[in-house]
Amino acid sequence: MKYYLVAGEASGDLHGANLMKALKAEDGNTVFRYFGGDKMQAEGGELVKHYAEMAFMGFTEVVLNLRTIFKNMKACKQDVLNWKPDVLILIDFPGFNLKIAEFAKANGIKVCYYISPKVWAWNQKRVLKIKKVVDHMFCILPFEVDFYHEWGMKVDYVGNPLLDEIAQFNPDPDFRTNTNLGNQKIIALLPGSRKQEIERLLPVMLSLTDLYPDYTFAIAAAPTFSESYYHQFTGAKKVHLLFNNTYNLLNVADAAIVASGTATLETALFKVPQVVVYKGGTISIAIARMLVKIKFISLVNLIVNKKIVTELIQEDCNPDRLNLELQMILEGEGRTKMLNNYDELSGLMGKPGASAKTAHLISGYLKS
């Protein structure tokens, strides 16, 4: 079978790679072509465009980069049409992927969508479009099944692919030694993988380093940026910069400050107490506050449907407030409560197997 996958962010690259691995196990005659990243490329096939050229954060940034976005979209449509895959598999990234889905459907190409767009957060009527242009939707969050059912759409719940990735993780026993982290307790900084969020969040995170001399600070750096890029923020501060080692870092971290996104869920599954942070452009956040219909921004809180981790959004994301919240999870009752709530989250998440289940369902749908 010929599989064309489209992932536009680091998390999509991760889940796309695991799905590709599962598809190879399910179908011994796989051929892949994709928009994605390094992890997908490691699974074989042909990388058409790297997600680093595609990910823009917030309403304002999208508007400012519309020319690039439309150029990428046009290139993707033409490439899909020329290659004629047996199935197009779209991974999250809805602003881009729903347009690709519409084009593919109009040209007789089967469309599977892995990791639902967050239509439950805003503009819920997009479900009506999804029903028209997507043949099969595979959801990874438990509450999404009921949401789609309310709109008269049947979807497959496959569990969460992060559980697959974490289950495959083998900790490096010499990680501290190899990275010169020493024996102090560690505060992990996860500022995200996109330029806009790193530049807005990392300076706030780094403002705390001098306040905690008994802790070691370490940044989970995005592989799409260089050391020199991060050094413009770290300067002379004593902070470690670690590339391609996020899980090893979380495995030894005592606490974390995390950009809102998939990393908040990963951090929770590693049982690391965290503070979630988010900063958008002034116009972007104003629009979001008018449109978004959810109580929380972190996946951790959304899945359990209550506040487990503190979310510092926009003006609340400042050094004083961040310091206060970090203190509350380093020791004492706040830390204990968060760790206990993580157990409830793990129970709702279930067990690994999302990638294999999705691959099996896709294979079955194609054969039928």
From TrEMBL:
First-level EC class: transferase
Catalytic activity: a lipid X + a UDP-2-N,3-O-bis[(3R)-3-hydroxyacyl]-alpha-D-glucosamine = a lipid A disaccharide + UDP + H(+)
EC number: 2.4.1.182
Entry keyword annotation includes Transferase: yes
Keyword hit for Glycosyltransferase: yes
A single BP term in Gene Ontology: lipid A biosynthetic process
GO molecular function terms attached to this record: lipid-A-disaccharide synthase activity; phospholipid binding
Pfam family, one: LpxB
Keywords: Glycosyltransferase, Lipid A biosynthesis, Lipid biosynthesis, Lipid metabolism, Transferase
Cellular compartments per GO CC: membrane
Family matches, as InterPro entries: Glyco_trans_19
Function: Condensation of UDP-2,3-diacylglucosamine and 2,3-diacylglucosamine-1-phosphate to form lipid A disaccharide, a precursor of lipid A, a phosphorylated glycolipid that anchors the lipopolysaccharide to the outer membrane of the cell.
Listed name of the protein: Lipid-A-disaccharide synthase
Organism: Pedobacter petrophilus
Gene that this polypeptide is encoded by: lpxB
